[in-house]
Write a structure and sequence with these properties.
The protein is mainly α and 297 residues long. Helix content is 43%, strand content 9%. The chain is elongated. Its main location: membrane.
């Protein structure tokens, strides 16, 4: 309701709702706004896109959520029936404007080619997750090395943007040496004709990293997972150990359950490669041990 109903209603003075917005406390001083405007119209057959940079930042009344002067305007108008696509384009432009490097490019760009070069540089550093190829319930580890804004600026010299139109993607030649080698089919995955030949080659390949796979997990963030797995194992060992002791006249009780769980869990974690699986006694094991004891007795 606070937004203007037409461009003629836009004034230089901020509205009352803008002045009362507490979000203004989080915005740094001398910040400027980028307004992304999209919409459907009935008088266009093809989408119309305009990216505007004002010579001087101007307060556009209630157009922005907070009383911040506007420097950039992105306008997308198109025929009806494609609202979702227009929303995604507007969200992509807003994400671009948040990036430090692209905002610098937008401030200093001289033509459309400079903006396209900035987009190419942004896409070179962005990580895209296809919606159908990953499980959103699985936690994704953050990248080990995040390129800093200063490093990216050194790769893309903003003063030479006019000479790099359309070629910003190839400007990061200095960083290519640090990228990992493209994955290829290893020898351990090929047919050798020998019994367990591929397995032996795989073991030889992994031996140099076996110790690091273990001591890399000794980290403060692993303590909660270790305690959770320990409690998950110990509670089952106590429960089924007590029941097993009653069924076997204490020949196999809680302490034996502890020892068996510890030995089986250690061997499985070292050689099975799945240390987060909780190993413990179950109901069928309890019945089997009871029947075996009675048979032996």
């Amino acid at each position: 309701p606070a937004q203007s109903r037409s461009m003629n209603d836009i004034s230089d003075t901020p509205s009352t709702n803008q002045l009362k917005n507490k979000f203004m406390k989080k915005i740094p001083r001398d910040a400027e706004a980028s307004n992304v405007l999209i919409g459907e119209v009935d008088f266009l057959d093809k989408p119309f896109v305009s990216f505007v940079r004002l010579a001087q930042a101007t307060t556009l009344g209630g157009l922005t959520e907070v009383p911040v002067p506007t420097r950039f305007l992105f306008i997308l108008l198109g025929p009806q029936g494609k609202t979702k696509s227009y929303n995604e384009i507007g969200r992509a432009i807003a994400t671009l404007m948040v990036d430090d490097l692209f905002s610098d490019v937008a401030y200093k760009a001289r033509d459309r080619g400079d903006l396209i070069a900035g987009v190419d540089e942004f896409l070179d550093e962005v990580i895209v997750l296809p919606p159908g190829e990953w499980d959103p319930k699985i936690r994704i580890e953050p990248p080990k090395k995040v390129p800093s804004a200063e490093m990216r600026k050194s790769v893309l010299n903003l003063n030479e943007l006019g000479q790099m139109n359309g070629s910003a993607g190839g400007a990061a030649g200095g960083e290519d040496d640090e990228l990992p080698v493209q994955h290829e089919l290893g020898e351990e995955l090929k047919f050798t004709g020998r019994f367990c030949g591929g397995l032996w080659l795989d073991i030889k390949r992994k031996i140099p990293f076996y110790c690091s796979d273990i001591y890399d997990g000794v980290h403060i963030q692993s303590i909660s997972a270790v305690l959770f797995i320990y409690l998950g194992c110990i509670t089952n060992a106590i429960t089924f150990g007590g029941l097993l002791g009653d069924a076997t006249d204490n020949y196999q009780g809680v302490m034996e359950s502890f020892l068996g769980t510890a030995l089986a869990g250690t061997v499985f974690c070292l050689f099975g490669g799945q240390p987060l699986i909780i190993l413990s006694s179950t109901g069928p094991i309890l019945i089997f041990e009871k029947l075996l004891y009675e048979f032996s007795k």
